[in-house]
Amino acid sequence: MRPRMTTRSPLAPDSFPALPDIAGVTLRVARARYKDWDRCDLTYVELAPGTTVAGVFTRNICCSSEVELGRAQIKQGVGRALIVNAGNSNAFTGYRGREAVEQIMEQVAGHLGCDASEVFVSSTGVIGVPLPKDKARAGVEAALTAEPCSWEAAAETICTTDTFAKGSTARAIVGGTTVQVAGIVKGSGMIAPDMATMLGYIFTDATVTPALLQELLSEATSGSFNSITVDSDTSTSDTVLLFATGKAGNPPLVTRDDPGADALYAAIREVALDLAHQVVRDGEGASKFIEVQVAGATSDNSARRVALSIANSPLVKTAIAGEDANWGRVVMAVGKAGEPADRDRLAIRFGDHWVAKDGLPVDGYDEAPVAAHLKGQDIRVGADLGLGDGRATVWTCDLTHGYISINADYRS
Amino acid sequence: MRPRMTTRSPLAPDSFPALPDIAGVTLRVARARYKDWDRCDLTYVELAPGTTVAGVFTRNICCSSEVELGRAQIKQGVGRALIVNAGNSNAFTGYRGREAVEQIMEQVAGHLGCDASEVFVSSTGVIGVPLPKDKARAGVEAALTAEPCSWEAAAETICTTDTFAKGSTARAIVGGTTVQVAGIVKGSGMIAPDMATMLGYIFTDATVTPALLQELLSEATSGSFNSITVDSDTSTSDTVLLFATGKAGNPPLVTRDDPGADALYAAIREVALDLAHQVVRDGEGASKFIEVQVAGATSDNSARRVALSIANSPLVKTAIAGEDANWGRVVMAVGKAGEPADRDRLAIRFGDHWVAKDGLPVDGYDEAPVAAHLKGQDIRVGADLGLGDGRATVWTCDLTHGYISINADYRS
Question: Which of A116, A217, A277, A286 fits A105 for a cystine, CB–CB 3.0-4.6 Å?
Fold first, then answer.
């Protein structure tokens, strides 16, 4: 594994944001030394009794035991603790990997006096090596008794090949009470070297039932974490968990129609979107952040598939890396998506500059403003299919020599 | 457009193969100067009266007028001529592009005294610029009266960003008569810079009805041209045409059960597969030729989708470029394919060396022979899903700095 955070992404924010304390959330980190390194690599988040939890997980069939167990645990809707191991994804390790996760769950449950099913575990890093039980046991032991730490320390500890720690916060007024939302995420590609993956954790002190919490998370995820792509490769460990400690004292939120549910949703969505964008900004080798907007599709789902076809096209991504207004490649990506489209109604733009309309280059096309837009770091690509009202936005980064260097010039 | 054939692919064959004359096929080339270059860029193939034709075309919805017209013409099943323009794909050019194609068809038809619908046209190169009618007219005029040329000259003339000219041949015994099959192809990616694309032309002197010819071509294409991928980007102009001049004197082949039909199919398939492999060997930036074999799937189609998921994964392709036995990335690609799979039955191999079985790394895994295999130029990746009898093979190349250099360090 490469030393982490060596060369900070050119798209990284200036610094880690100031995240508020969330009542009922205590962060601790420790050294399990899953790899031959001297850094904290085990994160322990203690959650107050009564904390509700929602989760979304990778759809990759070859998922890790952590994902399998988490998917089952989430049905109970309550959580007392989260453990995140960095440096070993524990994926494709069979029963031995599963035993290691169960050991961690029992160890933490024994300490907190809760049920093992209330302890959530994630792991990220090398694949095919069962998580070493002895290192996990000693690491958890150290973490359980460690001094509480900052959000930034926790955000750094869950990272593997990320080049910067990622956090975000927002707040909402629920029934006259201000509630806080804070989240951290790791990821630098759907998959980074050694199969590091995207893991995200969002916390709020709001009081929310598990069912509504799941509804809010699923909805927020679809327009954020599920709308980003670095390299089209879906990891085996992707996980996003949302915990609500209920310490803010707001009137409990039970349904989407309750006053304040919309405000909380907006705050959760803001944090999820910010964190998702930060993952793209740390995309392997990224030099440009790209927003792809598709309109005029026959449905939102159709628009989304067309947008992903554009965002995942190696030729579109390399053209943008080269600051080349090669809109023909966008046309190609629209056409290969397998969705309803009509070549002779299609319009393409870079930034706000239309380059093609009705299946033809625009009359008197002036490349100068388009070229100027492409020289920036934040690129917008638009396609209007001219068929209906379906629309979608996805985010990606460009494909550069940096991606090849990270993934090919590296030996496991 | 880059100067062509500057740096020959390291995977290229030593030389262009010796292709036999095919009775009823006459090749000519000329300079239309579609770009600012001094090379032949217009190919004219004259076909004897009575020649039957079959074709397969891109499924990209944003296809060129050439593809639209060709798809309609092929239904008649007869062809007297083929024109291939290099340097301008004429795609996304609306009615002006279509007019240029129709002009070429009429000009050649006037010369041969045939119907315009018997003249097939393909174009490859820059997108969004209508094929200039004046250059096309002069180029066709020169070609119609040029001296016949060699297969190699024709194979070079249809190229754009290819680094070597590609041809292949095979023969078959049909009803006691030896029939010849010869083909040429261009392509260096599903899409090369400026949207150059894959165009393939196969010729035989066999006598075959159009319906059977189409059946043979479709079947041969599915296991050859439709089973290769360089970068997952499907072009707007992909076309493969198969012409049968009927000059060999064999008893006419009408159905798949006729004696000799299997032999002719085998010869066509051999040429198609060889040409398809040559396209991959000229894949942009390729340093390794990769065969992906999937077995044990619930169906052949399912196996094919899993194989393409592996072959199109940027992380698998970069790992192989880096000679890294990162089988976890193959597991990830199997799992993300969306096809039936069971993590705990999955087995993965490189070459003939199994690295994982039953959802676990193999006991006593020895990386040395795997590493040795990965140092070669011809790499084989295998996945056995352990579920059924479905199997498929696809071919691709690795993803290297060369791909980025060609596609990102280049300005249109």
Answer: A116
- B91, A328: Cβ pair inside 8 Å? yes
State the fold for domain B289-408: Ubiquitin-like (UB roll) (3.10.20)
Crossing angle for the helix pair B65-73 and B94-112, to the nearest 10 degrees: 50
- Residues of B numbered 354-383 whose beta carbons fall under 8 angstroms of chain A's beta carbons: which are they? 356, 358-361
Contact B321 A195 (CB under 8 A): no
Whether A270 and A224 have beta carbons less than 8 Å apart is answered as no
Average pLDDT value for residue range B116-131: 91
Q: Where are the domains of chain B?
A: 25-281, 289-408
CA angle A97, A100, A101 (to 5 degrees): 90
Return the CATH fold of B25-281. Answer: L-amino peptidase D-ALA esterase/amidase (3.60.70)
**Chunked in runs of 10, what are the mean pLDDT values of chain A (412 residues)?**
61 93 96 95 96 88 89 94 94 90 98 97 88 97 98 95 91 93 82 55 94 93 82 76 94 94 94 89 91 96 94 92 91 89 93 92 91 96 97 93 81 48
A197 is catalytic: yes
Find the closest chain B residue to A400 by CA distance.
Answer: B404
Paired tokens of B358:
């039953």
Q: Which of A283, A224, A212 is nearest to A251 (CA)?
A: A212
- Which of B44, B70, B46 minimizes the C-alpha distance to B57? B70
Question: Touching check for B334 and chain A: CB below 8 Å?
Answer: yes
Q: Which residues of chain B make contact with A62, given a CB cutoff of 8 A? A: 331-332, 334-335, 341, 343, 346
CB B272 within 8 A of CB B352: no
pTM of the model: 0.85
Assess A404–B contact: CB distance below 8 Å, yes or no. yes
